[in-house]
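Review form for a predicted model. The reviewer records the input and the model, then writes brief findings.
Reviewer: anonymous (R2)
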Amino acid sequence: MRAALACAPLTLCIALAACEPAPEGEPVTRTEIGKGAEEEAAMRAQEQAAERAALAQSSVCSSVEFEGIPLTHCVADPATHRVRTALAGPEGEVFGSLDSFSQTVDQATVAFAVNGGEFERSGKPIGYFVENGERIVELDREDGSGNFYLKPNGVFFGTGGAWQIMPTDRFYSTVGARPEFGTQSGPMLVIDGELHPEIQDNGPSRAVRNGVGVDSDGRAHFVQSEEPLSFGQLARFFRDTLQTPNALYLDSNVSSLWDPATARLDADAALGPLIIVLKDDLEEIPEVSE
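Model under review:
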């Protein structure tokens, strides 16, 4: 009878059971409306910051200073990179900018890219240009005015992981086989460990400039100034700091860099030929799938 009274009526038993305190040691969960969304947003921001930091650490470009001028220095290592040149898409239209080129490739495959030498208004290279083993423009050994024709000018070229910079006349007389990539520009900045004879130590001309040099270990060093500097300052940085026996001037004022790891994409200048540094040992620039 006592048991029957304890469970009758049924609804009363259920109500009494619901009012019993929770057993000791079991946590009670409390939910505050709106707080979950804030915490989720904060966690997402932390994750994005960590991703950006990881990408920055994976960049092969770094900020340096030389004679009070801020520079960006990017290194292509033949053990982990391949160098390619690029000018136009499949339809023959010149990319014209790093931004346009970046939309045609998988950025995960690109270590960095820069402008690749002087060019005409149409974007066509002034001098020798080879892309994927195909010669687009022949070697220019003529005389003329402007930086390109400040002799000696030179050629940055290579096949596989072997990259070189040579004065134009030496390239003409010694290089027989066509390289996988090549671009001619001028002037040479450093020639066999010596500054170009026409470059002053610190001449009056100042501009945002970039160039490339190859060291004795075969690594290619790409340098871009973030502020105007003289030819002499850029040349000395290659010779004295990077110790590249040969270095070649690429261009001024339109000097541009795409560094996917840090999300830097200089897109203001109109460009012609491009130099692309790919990760690992990819044999060609992969196209983005539609």
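Findings: Residues 1-20 have pLDDT under 50 and may be disordered.
Further findings: Residues 194 and 239 are 7 Å apart (CA to CA).
Recommendation: see findings above.
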